[in-house]
Amino acid sequence: MFSRWNWVACGFYLVLNICSPDASGGLVQSCGHIIPESPVLALGSNFTALCILNESCLDFGNIYASQIIWKIKNRLVPKEQYREINRTVSSVTFNDTSSLATPLTCNILADGQIEQNIYGITVTVGLAPEKPKNLSCIVHQVSRFTYVMTCTWNPGRHTFLDTQFRLKYRWPEAVFPDCIPKDVNNSCTVNDIQFFVNTEIWVEATNALGKAESDRLVVDPIDIVKPLSPQNVSITSGLLPTVLQLSWENWISDAVMTLKFNIRYRIAGDTNWMEVPPEDTASPRTSFSIQGLRPYTEYVFSIRCMKEDGAGYWSDWSEDKTGVTIEDQPSKGPPIWRIIDTSQSPACWTVHLIWKALKPYEANGVILQYELTVRDKSSLSSPVKKYNVTGTNHTLQLREGTYEVTLIARNSVGPSPPSVLLIPASNSKAPVKNLRTLPKHDKLWVGWTAPNNYVLKYVIEWCLVSSSSDCTIEWQIAQGDVQGIDLKGIKPFKCYLITVYPLYADGQGSGQSVKAYLKQDRPSKGPTVQTKKVGKAEAVLTWNHLTVEEQNGFIRNYTILYKTIDGNETVVTVDPSKTEYTLSSLTSDTLYTVRMMASTDNGSRTGPDFTFTTQKFGKGEIEAIVVPVCLAFLLIVLLGVLFCFNKRDLIKKHIWPIVPDPSKSNIAQWSPQVPAKHNISSKDQMYPEGSFTDVSVVEIEADDKKSFSDQDLKPFDLLKKEKSTSEGHSSGIGGSSCMSSPRQSVSDSDEGETTQNTSSTVQYSTVVLNGYRDQTPVQVFSRSESTQPLLDSEERSEDHAGGADSTAQRQQYFRQNGGQDETNTDRPCFERTKQITHASEGDLVGFVQLQISGQSSQPLGLGMEKNTQEAAVSNVLQTCTEGQTVRPETVEENPLSVDEMPKSYLPQTVRQGGYMPQ
Amino acid sequence: MKFVPAGVVPFVALLLLQRRPVAGRALLVTGSGCPSHGLCRSNVQEQTRRQVAVLNATAQELFSLYLKCQGEPFSSESDKLCNPAGIFFPAFRVNRTSERKEVMVAMYKLFAFLNASLGNITRDQEELNPMAKELLERLHNTTKTTRGLISNLTCLLCKNYNIFQVDVRYGDSSRGKSAFKKKQQGCQVLRKYVQVIGQAARVLLPHLSPS
Q1: Signal peptide: which range, if any (chain A) (predicted)?
Q2: Could you give the CA distance from residue A659 to residue A693 in angstroms, rounded to a whole number?
Q3: Averaged pLDDT of chain A
Q4: Distance of CA A222 to CAs A191, A218, A344, A673, Å?
Q5: Are β-strands A348-355 and A393-399 bridged in parallel, bridged antiparallel, or unpaired?
Q6: Between A849 and A513, where is the model more confident?
Q7: pLDDT tens string B119-129
Q8: Which residues pair with A350 in a beta bridge?
Q9: Residue B163 domain-assigned?
């Protein structure tokens, strides 16, 4: 019980002691402390700290040194580093202070393992300062009497501690206040310096771990002065045009320091300085005359100074000051050249005299005017002409001849030496040889080999070659002893035409020209190629030359690259002078892609792709095929014609069998009413709509059908086969019937034409009056295209007519081309029909004629094909009426001539009660 | 008589000493050997000559500028007002034939006096003509030069002649005097200074020229 209360009291006591201020000033005294207090330790050294417990704590709280534990921050220090010196003192040792951190605390483990802090210290670890090195000082002149000395040094390594640097200086018998750097640790400026006293200067670095001094620098400040540059620099022109006098003021009196100087100068606008020899300005002075300058030239001057003996530093250069030398006479005459224009007349020259303004160092002043003198050397009597010109060119109209032109430039001081140009009548002298060019950086060197004769001067002309503008000539004169010059202002990638003329004392040589580039590049574009002609295996390519602006150099060659879609590319190199090339060995009917590349010395550029397809057949191949075929065809035709001609009788027999003339038949002779001769013309007049060359109308009793033999029916059967389309559909009369189908008629007419044209087909119409004897006979007509067998049958009928001639004579009618009076169209059709029943031949013909004209009534025709015989008759009557009323219209609508009207007739279907072909 | 422990008297000490004409003995060294022997090099002789030359070259300008800055009547009646007959100025009774040691000692006394007097004049002018920057700048530079000169002379006396102690007499202090009196005293000292420094330069030239 006691022990428990004892520990509680002890803990309370500790808390009070720890939380209380220092014993000396606080209420409660601490239980212990650490020595050393807040040490500053060298990095890497060893360190031992002691924690000393107060005796009072020992007595009251039973606290002993054996209970002490050490901590760095919150990290426990290994107990191997502890040592219990006695019951109140515990030490801890660190072999390397680099492992230390702050705070280092002394703690105690009270009863119950309660950790209580006794004391803590801060530990600072760093390095002692290094010896400052490389101390150097310079005295800057601030004003006429004010100088400051700035010293710099190398402070050495970082110390991790607060390190003070002090610049110290002293005289033999005086020590001055230290110069303490502000914000830096490697330089300091002293304001109070004194010349002509040896001053000892050094730097002292101090921190908690030590002090270090630099090497001592003993110097007289006058020997490390950087003076101010001379002031009030002025330049005055002397009496001579090549001299300028420079004056200035020094900031330092000679009593303090004598100075030497550097003077530099340059032509205004130039960047290169020239310098007066240092030995000329090595003594104290306040002015200097600079000689050897160019007349009438602006110069820029600058000056600097330093101690005469060379100790110390050069001042900065003074501000630039400019001065201009006075004028002098021009040192040389202006270069002169001419351009002769003889375009108006060879005998009358337009001479453009051109000259270059003198360079400033040649003009030596302002050129006021040029004095031009022209003397005709070919005519001594001609007066000398003088011109005063202010410009740099003059144009004269001169006759062809030799002239001497003299040019003088004049300024305010005097004239220049004269420049003489001889204009000969012809440039017949020897030219230069081996003209060549060579690029040199930004200049183009032009060289030549001199002619054998003595040359006074050379004139070098050059101009920029352009495709869009004229060549603007620039020129330059070189002395006769040189064989090459540099052309300035030459642009790269541009083509220049350079011409060199040698000038002799008595004339002028012809010019030699060369084209040149200062620098070449690859062409700016490639040639555009296209085909001029494409064949089966070859293609002619054509292109235009690149313009000189596009070339960017000399075109060394063209390269043609072509390929098929899936083939390898073929390359062809072409001479640059050509604009056309023929590709050969191409594959026929193949798509080719071709492009073209232009190359200079510095690269190539390819033009756009162009595609073309070779032809399938070569030139003449088609002709070689077609012509023989045609010839063969013609030959075959010819042979066929010859064959047909030779076999014409046989062919005619097969195609056009011999058709007897019905007019010469016995029947015709037999018929009493048949005129002996057909009046064709009258028939045409009577039937303009159509013509029937041969019409046979046969009326046969139905009962007499049996009287026809099979032979008689054969031709008719043959026709039926040929007209199979009509069989069973049409009455066969077609175009001859009002009830016939127009289409059928058309079809028939096609054949009918052929038939008619041949004039071999004899058309027969048969009108059958079908009926019994006791009935009103119904008139049925039909038509047959029966050919010759009809007549044969007819003949045979005549042969058979012996047994039944009475019937045949009464019922058969054969009529050719009824007479005019028989075709009275005013007569009603119905009447005519009746008359037909009374065997009126003319009416029958007219009736047929009407039916042909009315064949446009197709529905009736179609209906007729299926109707019975009676229906056919009624239709005929109806149609006939219609045909009569519409006839004028029909004539108008079908203005075909009679010959054009279809005249073929389908064979009639043999029906019961119908007619029978004969 | 006061004992001055160092050859170059601090400015504050000078002020105290110049309350009235005083004499001093400059103790150059204490014990054997010269102080800062490393600094007392062979060029000190030339440096001393150059310092005297600088003072001689700038003395007249300084005096003229001083008169100009004091205004009337000093600028117009300088001969009367600046007559140095009534003031103390160290005697400089040496010539080219005098011994070098004697010359050195005389110069030490002269420039010790001038250093103190220029200090007093500078102080007075800072009070009377604070805007006369050039005058003040010249006074400062002259004072500094005399200070350097005293240092070099100390070196030479010690090194060449083993003289460690020189009696020096300073002038009257101007403190407490009227502005006119201050100006007049400065004018009198500077006028005498112009005269004596020329003589010193001439005397010193053969003695200090590089041999």
Answers
A1: 1-25
A2: 13
A3: 74
A4: 14, 12, 84, 175
A5: antiparallel
A6: A513
A7: 999 999 998 88
A8: A341, A397
A9: yes
Q: What is the pLDDT of residues B57-100, one digit of tens each?
A: 889 989 989 988 888 887 777 777 888 787 888 888 887 777 88
- Three-state DSSP class for residue B201: helix
Domain of residue B155, CATH code = 1.20.1250.10
Q: What is the mean pLDDT of residues A571-577?
A: 91
Q: Does A174 contact B at CB distance below 8 Å?
A: yes
Upstream peptide bond of A227 is cis (omega within 30 degrees of 0) = no
Answer whether residue B37 shows pLDDT above 80. Answer: no
**Is the CB of A197 less than 8 angstroms away from the CB of B47?**
yes
Closest CA to A465 of A423, A493, A496, A434: A496
pLDDT one-digit tens code per residue, A750-793 = 444 444 444 444 444 444 444 444 444 444 444 444 444 444 44
**Backbone φ, ψ for residue A884 (5° rounding):** -70, -40
Q: Indicate whether B84 belongs to any domain.
A: yes
- Residue B46 is part of which domain span? 40-207
Q: Please report the pLDDT score of residue B121 as a whole number.
A: 92
- What is the interface size between A and B, counted as CB pairs within 8 Å? 85
User: Is the model's pLDDT at B50 over the cut of 80?
Assistant: yes
Q: Is residue B7 part of a domain?
A: no
Structure token pair of residue A856 = 């446009």
- Is B21 among the domain residues? no
pLDDT over threshold 50, residue A874: no
Q: What is the structure's pLDDT at A322?
A: 93
CB count in 10 Å sphere of residue A339? 14
Q: In angstroms, rounded to a whole number, what is the distance separating the alpha carbons of residues A233 and A319?
A: 8
Q: Provide the number of structural domains found in chain B.
A: 1
Residue A257 C-alpha, separation from nearest chain B C-alpha, in angstroms: 9
pLDDT in tens, A100-126: 777 888 888 777 677 888 888 888 888
CA separation (Å) from A474 to A239, A356, A499, A872, B113? 39, 10, 10, 115, 84
- Whether omega for the bond prior to residue A895 falls within 30 degrees of 0, making it cis, is no
Cβ-in-10-Å burial (0-12, 13-18, 19+) of A42 comes to middle
Kindly list the distances between the CA atom of residue A721 and the CA atoms of A653, A909, B208, in Å, as whole numbers in the listed order.
21, 11, 169
Of A145, A173, A196, the CB nearest to B137: A145
Does the beta-carbon distance from A173 to B7 stay under 8 Å?
A: yes
A308–chain B Cβ distance below 8 A for any pair: no
A175 touches chain B (CB under 8 A): no
Query: Which of these, A503, A483, A473, lies nearest to A434 by C-alpha position?
Result: A483
Report the residue from B36, B43, B149 with minimal CB separation from A172. B36
**Helix H or strand E encompassing A571:** strand A570-574
Given a cut of 90, is residue A373 above it in pLDDT? Answer: yes
Interface of B with A in 21-50 (CB under 8 A): 28, 34-36, 38-41, 43-44, 47-48, 50
Contact B59, B161 (CB under 8 A): no
CA distance B62 to B132: 12
Neighbours of A868 (CB within 10 A): 11
- Backbone angle region of A284, left / alpha / beta, with phi > 0 → left and psi within -120 to 50 → alpha: beta
Distance CA B207, CA B211 (A): 9
DSSP state of A756: H
Q: Residue B206: what pLDDT?
A: 64
pLDDT band at residue A829 under the 50/70/90 scheme: very low
Identify which has the larger pLDDT, A634 or B93.
Answer: A634
Question: With a threshold of 0.80, does the pTM exceed it?
Answer: no
End-to-end distance of chain B based on CA atoms, in angstroms? 39
Q: Using CA atoms, how far apart are residues A764 and A906, in angstroms rounded to an integer?
A: 10
Closest CB to A194 among B58, B137, B147: B147
A231-260 residues touching B, CB cutoff 8 A:
253-256
End-to-end CA separation in angstroms for chain A = 173
